[in-house]
Specification:
This protein is mainly alpha-helical. It has eight helices and two strands.
């Protein structure tokens, strides 16, 4: 939610003004689900999943694997990008969204309040479980299911998928988490 705004990502949607968290959950679910489904439906296309948590735990090893997979040169520049960005942003706010990936810094499962966490899991819990993430709730309260259902209806009505886009180099990587 920190990076979206009225011209970027889910912040562009009318639904964002009603409930940014649920809109972000629907957006995340859509983007990750697309990557997972594309990989399953196109096994001949090289595909790699990376968990954000693993990237933060082992940035050098994970970035090297991603760079190798995507056949990208200059791996070392990927590791130092935040040092350069920190200097360029010296006069900007200290908002945590500007900081380099750090363990615990952006842990949605621990940083959302109980209602918001239940709402996120009501939207994306099935996908989270398929990706082997631990859910906080065994049962989502009915009141939250009722609240998010109206947002799901809006999403289905306004966000019907257009025709699939082609990827000219037939490589993709999906960041989970």
């Amino acid at each position: 939610m920190d990076w979206a705004h009225e011209t970027k990502g889910p912040g562009r949607l009318d639904l964002w003004r009603q409930n940014p968290l649920v809109t972000s959950a629907l957006w995340w679910q859509r983007m990750v689900q697309r990557g997972v489904e594309d990989a399953a439906n196109n096994p001949e296309i090289p595909y790699m999943e990376v968990r954000y948590e693993r990237l933060v735990e082992e940035p050098s090893g994970i970035l090297r694997r991603v760079a190798d997979f995507l056949e990208l040169p200059n791996f070392d520049a990927m590791l130092s990008c935040f040092h350069t960005a920190d200097k360029a942003r010296a006069n900007k706010s200290a908002n945590k969204s500007w900081l380099a990936p750090t363990q615990g810094l952006r842990d949605w499962s621990n940083q959302l309040n109980t209602h918001d966490l239940a709402s996120f899991e009501a939207i994306a819990g099935d996908l989270l479980q398929r990706l082997s993430y631990q859910l906080a709730f065994d049962v989502i309260p009915d009141t939250i299911h009722e609240q998010v259902e109206s947002y799901r209806c809006w999403w289905r009505l306004h966000m019907a998928d257009p025709a699939p886009k082609t990827n000219p180099d037939n490589r993709s990587a999906t960041l989970l988490g």
